[in-house]
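Annotated sample (chain length 131).
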Amino acid sequence: MGAWSRHDIEGVLAPMADDVAWHYHVGSKPVHGREAMGRFLERLASHQQQLDWKMVQAAENDNSVLIEGTDDYVNPQGHHVQAPYMGVFEFDAEDRIVAWRDYVDMATMQIGERGDPLPDFLQELVDRPPA
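Output written by the structure step:
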């Protein structure tokens, strides 16, 4: 999370397995492999500025960690984008991430992308304090 807030792509990739499968948005085709993930993050970095990826809570189960939080950034048009999300990280025996799935509602993200305010019921979710 800290690496991404600095756009430190190598830092984001460091814990990834070479064959990581990243569903940056469940519902979209996944990105396969560290190299492809790096290329995707390079493009995403130019779109997401002033990053504040907030974790509200986390849970661990066997080889998986689930994180609930808020995506929070400013887009190139200067619009503040916030959306609640859930992320799942699966680890191998060497503690490298082999699978990463982000569950975020793209319609909610589009509200911020347009520069429109979130409805109160969503704003309550993104305003929760970090863990």
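Annotation: Strands lie at 16-23, 31-32, 54-61, 64-74, 80-91, 97-104.
Annotation: The radius of gyration is 15 Å.
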